[in-house]
Amino acid sequence: MILKKRTIDNEQTRLLSSNLGIDNSIAGILVARGIDTLDAAKDFLFPDNKRLPVFGIPNMDKAVERIKTAVVNSETILIYGDYDCDGICAVTILKLYFESIGAKVCHHIPLRADGYGLSLVALENVVEKFMPDLIITVDCGITAVEEVEYCYEALGVDIIITDHHEPCETLPECIIINPKLDAHSPLRDICGAGVALKLVEALDGYDKAMEYVDIACIATIADVVPLVGENRKIVALGLKKMNEFERPGIKLLAKSINIDKLQASDIGYRIAPRLNASARMGNTNDILPIFTSNEYFELESLVAQLNNDNEKRQTLTNKVYCEAMQQLKSLKLEHLSVIVLHCSSWESGVLGLVAARLAQEFFRPAILLNSKNEFCRGSARSISGINIFQCLNACSNLLTQYGGHEGAGGLTINIAKLEQFKENIDKYIKDTYPQSLFEQVVEYDIEITDKRQIDKAFYKQLELLEPTGEGNPPAVLLLNSNIAAISRIGNTKHVKIKLNREAEAVAFNA
Length: 510
Description:
Elements: E1 2-5, H1 10-20, H2 24-32, H3 38-45, H4 60-72, E2 76-81, H5 85-100, E3 104-108, H6 120-130, E4 134-138, H7 145-153, E5 158-162, E6 175-177, H8 192-204, H9 206-209, H10 213-222, H11 229-242, H12 248-256, H13 264-280, H14 289-292, H15 296-328, E7 339-343, H16 351-362, E8 366-370, E9 375-381, H17 388-394, E10 399-404, E11 408-414, H18 418-432, E12 441-444, E13 446-448, H19 456-462, E14 477-479, E15 483-488, E16 495-499, E17 503-507
Parallel strand pairs: 1-12, 2-3, 2-4, 4-5, 5-6, 7-8, 13-14
Antiparallel strand pairs: 8-9, 9-11, 10-11, 15-16, 16-17
């Protein structure tokens, strides 16, 4: 492990500190993170003050026109979403909005076993079941070229794609709302539910969109997009609204896990995993009522289901992780730039979680696949600096299907091509990215020379950095001290550390 202090511009630090009335150390953290002008710092510290133009997203005007026509003509609108937390939240936002204006709306969320995104079979089924005049996808569809053509030509149904994943060279021939179509868009990093929120804003104004900002907040944290810019604003405003507990389902879920006041970390580590757990465990029950229902007994049953599925998910995740670690023993990891593992018995729903854990532990991208039949399906997770979507794109000739963004992706590959894929993606990463990315470097913000520096006033200043998460990590403090004693906390995985300067620390999952 390499310890490295973040470099800062002292002059800019003093400028921010004096003009904004913030502690010099906090100003230094902002400068080190590239927030080095007064305007940028104000936008960061007061994220609810700036509104970005929604019609700056390509094709937003066309989508609004088509949707308003559908509403006026009482056409049936089908919301088609992905099965993860982001997709579920995006479906919920549009469903609630269209219901609020009296539109004819229905929704469909495929099972994880059906595969990611649009499929020809799924389109046939939903058109037969719901007979929609217009399909709006959320959090999926950007790569569905064949499926969109089939929807128009064979099924005779209009379709609008809303997505946030990386587009390929060939796009579906329909109206597409995806901020990533504009390389310079300040909204490029919003999640699928963020795109849905922006669509509501374009249709009915900012205040109407803010009715659903708490739902977009959950998705933004769950999808691990950078908590800067518009995402920081969504989370900051969303947390305020969530803590008013206007949605009985979220209130009951939080109460069931002893949360009185929700923070970003609670969403990331406790709420979102439960919302994802049902789909991961193959549970077919629709969980939208957690956001929409006011029926206590329905919600009580749903919360129990979410907690139960989450326990199963944790058990399965640990099982797959242990088996993956066993496979790694036979590999010369020091010669590999990427981990690619497969097993016929692995539960597909937890592969992304285990891949993320392996990537974090071994400082290289990780791809885990279920290989129970001719086609392997699985998930990819990356590390900072390596764009996993571009890596998959470089091997597209070997893949049956793939998609994703910089940090995460999904793929399907014929098992006969798997060994060649391993060689090709390993070579691509080695040829494209510097070796330094695979070294564990811990950058710290502040060195604490006296524990008295850490007082209530200092903690209050640190709160200015919240909400923290991907792209805006918590401040890292370096305490120059020796360890006096280490003890396990009960039967947990956590460790209490006694330092020789009358200070204590806790190492979680140590």
